[in-house]
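Budget justification aside, the reviewers requested a transparent look at the raw inputs and outputs of the sequence design task funded under Objective 1. We therefore reproduce one unedited record. The lines immediately below are the structure tokens for a 1138-residue chain.
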């Protein structure tokens, strides 16, 4: 048959450019077609962000994209170029400090990424070249190379399996670093390859690199002598993925098809981007407002200056004649220079020191997470880890939590709980290997303590021992595990490895172990022969004829075996919804109650059935299966049709209940998160049934929760196209969950509103891909919008069979939805890295599946249960602290600079500073910085125990409540009021400037010093009033700062400093305090400034006495954070006044 005809027959377009062609071993093919080897990328992995050459420009560019950094750079340049009232050092030094510290931190993080990349790229591998095994580095592997991999090594690239050490041509791998599943998966060699790889001449035609871990389509052309090439279809079962690990197989050989950044693992890696918190965005917004105020002030003063100078005699008074150079200066240039000078003079309204303080608060505050003893896990002897301190406050703003299942919610440790045989319940009590254990029934009462017949019991246990894909680990590779496998009594909960079993699913191992408890032991598979040891200690042998594999649409798997007497039997196990329609109806009711009860208890339930096949029936099935497996087009559909045909009219034997053990306090943690108003989504690569059981066990789905399912199974119902069914289901679910749902009051959760109907949503990876592709083609955002609206009205969402990149897509979709909710992703494996990097906050669990998630996360915790305290206590407190810090900084700088602005109206707009240069420099750095830093590190407005006990308190600060425009307006008005009071209060005092006993008058520096003294004491005492959690540190820094100001003022003005040209404050402070009038005004103005706060507190106390009986809560109206001083000695917490 001509080659072209063959290609057309197998559905391959000869001119197709969508596929890649790989020459195995780089050996030329005896083909009429000339193959030009295309260029493929090398096998280097690059996850770093910078190089030595681009670090400085790229890092500086990223840092100066921040509006604050760019603004201070401009101010610094203006101070350098233009003759301004203040020194360039006041802006340049803090800016240099922030830029340098940030650059060092980011450079160090990238150096660690370079180091990790080099470890992978320089990893030693063995490559076959001209029949010789040559040691090479991983990065030097090329597409087409034949690579040798030994047991427990990871695959250096994506390989097609050519040869295995195992006789049956299989190998076992674990893909924990890819999809989170630590179970063994079986992969198969390409048939008819032969044992001599040196003489193998073949080409592989396969699809271009794509990220779906579970999909691969290809074909191998094998050339032997001058014959026509042999075609072999390639599927996911032949592909070994980079990052997976070879298990229970001594050595394999494979040909590289995808390398480097084109491997599926690399395509699923989400690049690390710089994360910014919501607080930083609020700071930028407030900064723009204050920038507008600053420019307005400078424009007003510049305009009024030239209006004032236009009057006769004002422009050039007799005591200040202009120089010739000043007279020759262009008027507009001078006006612009004056504008810049006013900008610099009022520049202190923008708090440059706030950024330094915020960086210090974040850096120092992160130590409290690392030091928290509650986060210490004695099992791994580690506590929490903080990789990024920039997001501390974001922990208090989380609205969505995306969690992995395997290893995060669960321990990935399945345990056989009980079984039901012919309607009778068998609950295991101990390790006795007879069925005379505890027996109960879900049937009539008179059957209690009875048992099913012995024949049914043994039939059920044989089904458990035969219907699976479990392998017994080779005894030579175990340390004395042979006796254990042969059925001796074992410890209650050993791991699969200790028991000597390996399988693609942990529940299969649990079922085999469950059968062992009752006397039936699986001994292994040898040359298509299954061996089991029955209760009579006799070895039974069965010929394995066919395995009908599990798939998520059928939700069942079967085996066809032939026993010693020549009888052919089909054993089937699967989900109840998949088995019940295929067995006799009268058998269903005996088992249904048992299955439903176990499902509501959160157990994974499977039903077991069997069917005897006549020789004629089996011959037909065998022929149909072989024909379907040879098909290259629509192979899966043809196999499914044969499976469905044979798996009918079966007899139901019983059901099993298996528990995937939850992580410690997993259910309580999920309940607390939901109580805090956080929506929880479970994103897993696992099967839907297992994941659904876990959601029930974690109480994410309740007994009355109605599940809305959007999976391949529901899309393929009713015989319509998937796209039509998708559209129909989305509209149906939207009507049910959104349109017809009663309105829920804000703050009401499921636990409080039992009357409302609860919905849970389930979607799988294939349906998500279909939805996103349909959305991008026809209806741009309709499907996505409907999907998100449905999910927002569901109490929990489960996404199963998700590839790592799909997890990130889900997170990104929610993150970019209306309202831009704050998202958090938590996981423990490398398959979770993409979603951890995509979310606003990424949490890694220090689990059993390596440390990739921990390395790429922002925070790492030992167990899931620690997430509760991390969010509800640490996150809540960090947010309140930094929100107060930001508002307080803008407030105190407005108080500081407003008198300076008002002073220009009384000094001829001459840019005369009101305060001495030392005060200008020291105000934010020394006099007022330490109290707010201590407050932002130590404040506990509510006790930690109260925050943990009452999860609803988390909602009080949700959606950035303390940094909204209303609180910001309050703080701004307070700053304006106090600034006006400072300036005009002191001006009223100076209406009679002879304030000393000797009649000596005060000058302008005395005026500024009195204003500054009132200012420092007022803003510090305001913070003292806001402090609820007093420690010795708070006392030290608050009263110490005031004492330091007084000491510094005496010291600065009491000595003649030789390096200062103009010593303006010489003895000014001492003279000022020598005046009783000055004392009186300072005390009076401080009291008047704080009077509104004091009156508000008194008013609240008198009219809100019931508040003391209320639970602690935060004020959301944006009014002052004044607290009633009702500190308790035990918790150091205060109660909010109402």
């Amino acid at each position: 048959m001509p080659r072209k005809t063959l290609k057309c027959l197998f559905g391959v377009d000869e001119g197709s450019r969508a596929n890649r062609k790989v020459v195995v071993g780089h050996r030329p093919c005896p083909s009429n077609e000339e193959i030009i080897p295309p260029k493929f990328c090398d096998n280097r992995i690059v996850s770093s962000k910078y190089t030595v050459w681009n670090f400085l420009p790229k890092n500086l560019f990223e840092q100066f994209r921040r509006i604050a950094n760019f603004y201070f750079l401009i101010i610094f340049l203006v101070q350098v170029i233009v003759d301004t009232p203040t020194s360039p050092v006041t802006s340049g030094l803090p800016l240099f400090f922030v830029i340098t510290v940030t650059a060092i931190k980011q450079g160090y993080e990238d150096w660690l990424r370079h180091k990790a990349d080099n470890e992978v790229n320089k990893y030693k591998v063995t490559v076959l070249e001209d029949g010789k095994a040559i040691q090479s580095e991983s990065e030097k592997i090329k597409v087409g190379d034949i690579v040798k991999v030994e047991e427990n090594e990871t695959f250096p690239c994506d390989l097609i399996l050519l040869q295995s050490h195992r006789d049956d041509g299989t190998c076992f791998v674990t893909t924990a670093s890819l999809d989170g599943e630590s179970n063994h998966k079986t992969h198969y060699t390409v048939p008819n390859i032969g044992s001599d790889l040196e003489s193998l001449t073949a080409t592989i035609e396969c699809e271009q690199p794509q990220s779906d871990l579970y999909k691969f389509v290809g074909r191998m052309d094998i050339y032997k002598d001058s014959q026509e090439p042999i075609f072999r279809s390639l599927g996911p079962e032949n592909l070994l993925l980079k990052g997976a690990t070879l298990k229970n197989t001594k050595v394999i050989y494979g040909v590289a098809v995808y390398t480097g950044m084109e491997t599926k693992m690399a395509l699923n890696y989400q690049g690390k981007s710089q994360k910014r918190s919501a607080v930083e965005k609020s700071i930028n917004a407030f900064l723009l407002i204050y920038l507008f105020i600053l420019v307005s002030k400078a424009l007003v003063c510049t305009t009024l200056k030239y209006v004032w100078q236009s009057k006769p005699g004002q422009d050039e008074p007799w005591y200040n004649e202009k120089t010739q150079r000043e007279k020759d200066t262009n008027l507009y240039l001078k006006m612009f220079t004056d504008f810049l000078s006013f900008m610099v003079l009022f520049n202190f309204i923008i708090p440059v020191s706030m950024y330094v303080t915020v960086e210090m608060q974040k850096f120092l505050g992160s130590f409290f997470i690392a030091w928290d003893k509650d986060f210490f896990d004695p099992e791994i002897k580690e506590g929490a880890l903080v990789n990024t301190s920039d997001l501390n406050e974001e922990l208090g703003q989380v609205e969505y939590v995306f969690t992995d299942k395997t290893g995060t919610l669960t321990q990935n440790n399945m345990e056989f709980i009980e079984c039901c045989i012919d309607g009778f319940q068998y609950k295991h009590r101990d390790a006795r290997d007879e069925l005379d254990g505890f027996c109960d029934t879900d049937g009539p009462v008179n059957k209690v303590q009875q048992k099913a017949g012995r024949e049914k019991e043994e039939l059920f246990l044989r089904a458990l021992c035969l219907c699976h894909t479990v392998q017994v680990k080779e005894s030579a590779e175990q340390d004395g595990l042979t006796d254990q496998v042969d059925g001796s009594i074992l410890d209650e909960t050993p791991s699969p490895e200790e028991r000597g079993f390996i399988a693609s699913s942990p529940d299969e191992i649990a079922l085999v172990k469950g059968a062992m408890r009752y006397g039936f032991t699986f001994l292994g598979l040898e040359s298509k022969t299954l061996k089991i040891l029955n209760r009579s200690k006799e070895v039974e042998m069965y010929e394995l004829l066919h395995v009908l594999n599990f798939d998520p649409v059928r939700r069942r798997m079967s085996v066809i075996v032939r026993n010693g007497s020549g009888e052919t039997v089909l054993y089937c196990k699967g989900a109840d919804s998949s088995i019940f329609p295929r067995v006799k109806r009268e058998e269903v009711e005996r088992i249904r109650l048992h299955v439903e009860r176990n499902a509501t208890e959160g157990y994974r339930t499977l039903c077991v059935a069997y069917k005897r096949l006549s020789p004629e029936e089996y011959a037909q099935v065998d022929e149909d299966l072989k024909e379907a497996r040879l098909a290259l087009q629509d192979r899966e559909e043809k196999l499914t049709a044969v499976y469905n045909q044979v798996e009918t009219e079966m007899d139901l034997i019983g059901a099993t209940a298996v528990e995937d053990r939850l992580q410690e306090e997993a259910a309580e943690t999920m309940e607390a998160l939901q109580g805090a108003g956080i929506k929880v989504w479970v994103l897993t690569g696992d099967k839907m049934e297992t994941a659904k059981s876990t959601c029930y066990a974690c109480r994410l789905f309740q007994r009355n929760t109605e599940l809305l399912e959007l999976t391949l199974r529901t899309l393929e119902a009713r015989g319509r196209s998937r796209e039509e069914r998708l559209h129909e289901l989305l509209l149906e679910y939207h009507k049910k969950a959104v349109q017809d749902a009663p309105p829920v009051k804000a703050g009401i959760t499921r636990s409080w509103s039992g009357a409302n109907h609860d919905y849970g949503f389930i979607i799988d990876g294939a349906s998500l891909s279909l939805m996103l592709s349909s959305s991008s083609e026809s209806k741009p955002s309709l499907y996505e919008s409907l999907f998100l609206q449905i999910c927002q009205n569901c109490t929990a969402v489960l996404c199963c069979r998700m590839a790592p990149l799909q997890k990130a897509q889900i997170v990104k979709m929610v993150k970019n939805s209306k309202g831009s909710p704050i998202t958090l992703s938590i996981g423990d494996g490398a398959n979770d890295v993409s979603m951890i990097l995509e979310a606003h906050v990424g949490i890694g669990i220090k689990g059993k599946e390596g440390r990739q998630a921990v390395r790429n996360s922002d925070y790492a915790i030992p167990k899931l249960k620690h997430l509760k305290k991390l969010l509800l206590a640490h996150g809540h407190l960090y947010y309140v602290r930094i929100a107060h810090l930001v508002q307080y900084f803008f407030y105190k700088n407005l108080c500081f600079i407003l008198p300076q602005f008002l002073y220009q109206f009384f000094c001829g707009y001459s840019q005369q500073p009101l305060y001495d240069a030392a005060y200008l420099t020291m105000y934010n750095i020394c006099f007022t910085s330490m109290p707010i830093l201590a407050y932002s590190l130590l404040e506990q407005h509510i006790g930690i125990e109260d925050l943990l006990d009452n999860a609803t308190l988390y909602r009080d600060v949700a959606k950035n409540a303390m940094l909204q425009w209303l609180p910001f307006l309050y703080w701004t008005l307070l700053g304006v009021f106090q600034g006006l009071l400072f300036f005009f209060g002191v001006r009223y005092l100076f209406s009679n400037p002879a304030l000393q006993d000797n009649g000596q008058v005060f000058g302008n520096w005395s005026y500024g010093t009195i204003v500054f003294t009132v200012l420092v004491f007022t803003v510090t005492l305001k913070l003292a009033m806001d402090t609820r959690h007093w420690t010795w540190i708070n006392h030290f820094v608050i009263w110490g700062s005031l004492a330091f100001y007084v000491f510094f003022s005496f010291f600065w003005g009491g000595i003649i400093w030789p390096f200062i040209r103009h010593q303006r404050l010489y003895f000014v402070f001492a003279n000022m305090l020598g005046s009783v009038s000055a004392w009186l005004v300072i005390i009076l103005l401080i009291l008047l400034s704080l009077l509104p706060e004091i009156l508000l507190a008194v008013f609240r106390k008198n009219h809100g006495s019931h508040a003391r009986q209320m639970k602690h809560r935060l004020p959301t109206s944006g009014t002052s954070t004044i607290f009633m001083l009702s500190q308790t000695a035990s918790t150091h917490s205060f109660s909010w006044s109402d």
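The chain has a mean pLDDT of 78. The first helix runs from residue 3 to 9. Computational costs for records of this kind are itemized in the attached budget.
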